Amino acid sequence: MFQIITDNGSDLPKEWLLENQVHCLYLSTILDGEVIAGKDKELSAEEFYKMLSEGAKPSTSQINPQQAKEFYEEHAGDGDEFLYVGLSSGLSGTVGSVKIGVEQFLEKHPEKKIEVVDSLTGSLGEGMMAWHAVRLRREGKSLEETAKWLRDNCQHFLLDFTVDNLFDLWRGGRVSKTSAMIGTLVGVKPMLIVDPEGKLVVREKLRGRKKSLNALVDDMEVRQAAKFPENEQMIMICHGNVPEDAEYVRRLVEERFGYKNFLMSNVGPMIGTHTGASLVVLSFMGDERK
Question: Do the Cβ atoms of 88 and 96 come closer than 8 Å?
């Protein structure tokens, strides 16, 4: 059985990772030169978003090749085959670093097989790819078959999200300060998606929080694909620190489409640094990104 690895850009709950035997590489969240969340460092959503509300300005650090090589050295005894599903190369250099680390590791361990899959998405879009990797492994698919399926279907993993506070996106480097100021003055709540290159783009600009939450589900109705049977259609929803908004979206999805298969989680510090506490994410499989 091959080993599955993702990173904390996937926002998958730790309990799910343990239950499904999925390893995790950790990008670090840094504040005032100190790592506050990452490998061997945990920080709850409540603690992290409280820090942000009090004016903390953390940053994040991608995994470097040496850290990736050390990870595989550490887990070399776990098996001979590994699949890594990583945070979009359109958002982070981590996948590139992991590929370099893997090459260095394989020089010493040529008997090992490692597949590196660029998710071209993030948060629970990446998490959903890891979920399907687990599903395929459970069904008896090989390492190569699973990696091929993920790459072939990569553009069908869709991610919609919204934030209530544009200044959170500004602090995270996702919009300009001018855009944040103007948007806030007129009450703009953006709804964003991940494009085919794995980058964030604004799909709609709406007035009011409820409209932006509804827009997530409206967009799902437009883009979800009927060709994916319900047993393959996991719906994933996560949030920074607004559980009532995430639950509102879940109920709306269930009422409109009848889905019962949900995974709910918190957005961790790594993604939350760039999006803030008001983030709500909806991920599902659908038509190819455009």
Answer: no
Phi and psi at residue 27, to the nearest 5°? -75, 150
Nearest residue to 10 via CA among 195, 186, 207, 268: 268
* Cα–Cα nearest to 45, from 192, 250, 242, 237: 242
Condensed to tens digits (0 to 9), the pLDDT of residues 246-274 reads 999 999 999 999 888 999 999 999 999 98
- The DSSP result for 210-229, as a single string, is HHHHHHHHHHHHHHB-TTS-
**Structure tokens belonging to residue 3:** 């080993």
Rounded to a whole number, what is the largest CA-CA distance in the chain?
59
Q: pTM higher than 0.70 for the full model? A: yes
Residues 53 and 145: their CA atoms lie apart, in Å, by 45
Q: Which two tokens stand for residue 284?
A: 């599902």
- Our measurement of the distance from residue 289's CA atom to the centroid of its chain's CA atoms, rounded to an integer in Å, reads 16
pLDDT tens track for 71-125: 999 999 999 999 999 999 999 999 999 999 999 999 999 999 999 999 999 999 9
Calculate the CA dihedral of residues 62, 67, 68, 70 and round it to 10 degrees. Answer: -170
